[in-house]
Design brief:
about 80 residues, 3 helices
Length: about 80
């Protein structure tokens, strides 16, 4: 199973991060531990949404969509 997830910075609520992983229970705490250069300076993070995909490539395709202009508009409308 693959997961696409969205994290929101606790201290900077306008800051969000979209990612994909095979192990969400491991990956989310790694962001809060500073193990990702893209998310280290906006710690701590709160997991606000995730979706499971049986196929890695479908998950990566959806992650790419969420990072696009229309994907950001979708998440802003649905998760704000």
């Amino acid at each position: 199973m693959w997961y696409v997830y969205i994290l929101r910075s606790v201290e900077f609520p306008e800051g969000e991060y979209v990612g994909a992983t095979e192990d969400l229970k491991r990956r989310a705490p790694e962001h809060n531990a500073g193990r990702s250069t893209h998310t280290a300076k906006f710690r701590p993070w709160k997991l606000i949404w995730y979706c499971a995909f049986p196929d890695k490539y479908k998950a990566l395709e959806f992650e790419k969509y969420l990072k696009s202009h229309s994907g950001r508009a979708f998440t802003k409308k649905r998760l704000s």
